[in-house]
What we know:
The protein has helices at 3-20, 27-38, 45-52, 61-73, 113-117; strands at residues 78-80, 88-90, 99-101, 108-109, 126-128. With 129 residues, it is an alpha+beta fold.
Amino acid sequence: MTEATETTDRLEQIIAKLRERDFRITPQRIAILKIFLGSVEHPSVEQVYRQVKPDFPTTSLATVYKTVNLLKEVGEILEIGFADGGNRYDGNKPYPHPHLICTRCKTIVDPQIELIEQNRLRPRGQLRL
Ligand SMILES: [Zn+2]
């Protein structure tokens, strides 16, 4: 099975789950879901909002927040909280996993554990588990 097929299957499963919770499925909400599920960059709500806005100008920030909250409820997104309140989200891997976070620019990546164990990758930020 290709990765693209897996993503589509997952999207359909999640849409079914959200429908059960009376979430109205609109093209803009599907676009928001796709960005969260397909992103490995751990975007913030604002970043996703800015990505959706050009294609769906009527999208509101509240719609993106609502989508995130529902995804949290059904366990399909991981919230990564910062002390300054700027939450970031991982909809690609919705289960706890280590993150490398740059303390300066706040870039978040999913590290390749093998590389860290072999000491080839030397993170400058802190490693959070
Ligand atoms: Zn992650």
